[in-house]
Backbone:
């Protein structure tokens, strides 16, 4: 992904340092304002954090391989679950899709770069420092916070200095997200090529436009919640501390007002990627384009009025439970529209199943399954039974891994030729898909059974009756983790020694980066902008 | 230049929304309590 080629060959003679900012080596990457360079850095950063968070997941699964305490002590186990969640959500999945956005949005709307190129550089370079703070928290007295990725009060008020590092890291991650979102909205609204009307934009751009609005609306809310946590810890306030008259449940309301839209912040760009991949390999236009746009907007709007479905067991009036239950089930309607449209796009299409399409179809099956278990959990009487059990863990991993991660893999395989000018090894790509698909289900499908049988989440030990499914889940997790090393190998092999990619390797791809640009994409593109009228 | 100022205006509006959310949330619970 780092093999961006300047086919114009005009970089240095311009004399204003527009090629690699006039620097070579590491300084090229530190000072770059090029959207492709920054997209590449986001993607590599995301993969690095995916590996770090993955190792934490394997620590968790190693401990849960057998009942009793074998590998880590319970406190460290809690730190692992907390940091695994934070790193995967904020360090791996979100930056992955920001990487796609950086690479693709300017090319798909016919813009020369992002609107604020220097701010774009800053948005990225904040991230490694935030990640460093999260990792450093392990080495502070008391270790990293063991409060869960939701950072619930009042535990957060009682944690050691690692909690402060985490709060600062969340602030930095939020700033990065907001700056990135401002850049994306401004780029899409103001910098489209003549003739690229809003309703001609590829679905990926639409999903990111709506996601960016969501981020601007909810990241400040998370920042407010952790700021209040910080003042509770050090400045004598009692927002969430019951001992001082505060309300811990208030934190949960504020957190989930951020937290549920966050689910769609992760899911919507994944929908966008899949909406590019499925039509390309069906050799048909996306079915129901306009309804896809409206469904995306509807999901985003509804995501603001469902937050308390995460809190049914905390205690709320019956009318509150009914409201949040009905509002949550309503989200199934626009989501169903999307699933229907993807299937209808494939219907009577000239289908082929290269690796990107395999991951997109895998996404379609497994994300829909995660959506169904989400519907189950939206129902108050059922949720009260399975709240905080492994059923919930299984549900959100079907959404986050089989949803977002599968879509990210589909996107990487789909655009690797455009990014590098080389083809990946199709056989190895298919091996990666099938190993990932099998081990994912071995890991997480059985967790539904564990949850329904009553196994709580976030515990290092469990009764003997849960042993068999836990063993299977742990074996699956190690298989899943090892399979991702194959992904790394496929990408590196593609960059180093892949066969030269044709100009348009996917005949059904019809967005601007495929139809108006050579492969690999030149370092500078669409300057001047194309006229699409 | 015109495009830049249009971009700056858009960014300013969006940044103001984000800042207003943050300040309003903290102030609401600071001044008015839960």
Residues:
């Amino acid at each position: 992904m780092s093999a961006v080629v300047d086919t114009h060959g005009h970089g240095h003679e311009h004399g204003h340092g527009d090629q690699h900012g006039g620097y070579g080596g590491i300084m090229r990457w530190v000072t770059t304002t090029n959207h492709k360079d920054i997209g590449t850095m986001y993607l590599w950063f995301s993969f690095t954090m995916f590996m770090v968070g993955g190792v934490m997941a394997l620590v968790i699964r190693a401990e849960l391989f057998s009942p009793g305490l074998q590998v880590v002590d319970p406190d460290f186990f809690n730190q692992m679950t907390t940091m695994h969640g934070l790193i995967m959500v904020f360090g791996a999945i979100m930056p992955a899709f920001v990487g796609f956005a950086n690479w693709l949005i300017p090319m798909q709307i016919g813009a020369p770069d992002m609107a604020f190129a220097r701010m774009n550089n800053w948005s990225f370079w904040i991230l490694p420092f935030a990640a460093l703070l999260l990792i450093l928290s392990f080495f502070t007295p008391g270790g990293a916070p063991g409060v869960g990725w939701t950072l619930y009060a009042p535990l957060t008020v009682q944690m050691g200095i690692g909690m402060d590092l985490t709060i600062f890291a969340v602030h930095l991650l939020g700033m990065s997200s907001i700056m990135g979102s401002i850049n994306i909205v401004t780029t899409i609204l103001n910098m489209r090529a003549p003739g690229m009307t809003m309703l001609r934009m590829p679905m990926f751009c639409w999903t990111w436009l709506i996601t960016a609005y969501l981020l601007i609306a909810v990241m400040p809310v998370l920042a407010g919640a952790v700021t209040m946590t910080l003042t509770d810890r050090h400045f004598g306030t009692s927002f969430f501390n019951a001992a001082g008259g505060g309300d811990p449940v208030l934190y949960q309301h504020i957190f989930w007002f951020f937290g549920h839209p966050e689910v769609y912040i992760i899911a919507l760009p994944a929908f966008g990627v899949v909406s590019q991949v499925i039509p390309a390999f069906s050799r048909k236009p996306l079915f129901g384009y306009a309804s896809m746009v409206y469904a995306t907007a509807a999901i985003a709007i509804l995501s603001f009025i469902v937050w308390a479905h995460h809190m049914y067991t905390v205690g709320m009036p019956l009318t509150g439970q009914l409201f949040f239950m009905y509002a949550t089930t309503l989200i199934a309607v626009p989501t169903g529209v999307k699933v229907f449209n993807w299937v209808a796009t494939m219907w009577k299409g000239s289908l082929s199943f290269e690796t990107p399409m395999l991951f997109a179809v895998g996404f379609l099956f497994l994300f829909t399954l995660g959506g169904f278990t989400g519907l189950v959990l939206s129902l108050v009487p059922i949720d009260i039974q399975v709240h905080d059990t492994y059923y919930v863990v299984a549900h959100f991993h079907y959404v986050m891994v089989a949803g977002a991660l599968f879509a990210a893999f589909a996107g990487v395989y789909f655009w690797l030729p455009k990014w590098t000018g080389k083809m990946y090894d199709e056989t190895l790509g298919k091996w990666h898909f099938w190993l990932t698909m099998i081990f994912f289900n071995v890991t997480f499908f059985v967790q539904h059974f564990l949850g329904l049988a009553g196994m709580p989440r976030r515990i290092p030990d469990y009764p003997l009756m849960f042993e068999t499914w836990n063993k299977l889940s742990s074996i699956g997790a190690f298989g899943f983790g090892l399979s991702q090393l194959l992904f790394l190998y496929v990408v590196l092999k593609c960059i180093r020694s892949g066969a030269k990619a044709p100009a348009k390797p996917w005949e059904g791809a019809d967005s601007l980066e495929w139809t108006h640009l050579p492969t690999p994409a030149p370092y500078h593109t669409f300057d001047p902008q194309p006229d699409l009228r | 230049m015109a495009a830049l100022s249009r971009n700056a205006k858009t960014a300013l509006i969006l940044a103001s929304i984000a800042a207003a959310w943050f300040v309003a949330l903290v102030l609401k619970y600071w001044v008015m309590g839960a």
Q: What stands out?
A: Residues 43 and 96 of chain A are 5 Å apart (CA to CA). The longest strand of chain A covers residues 422-423.
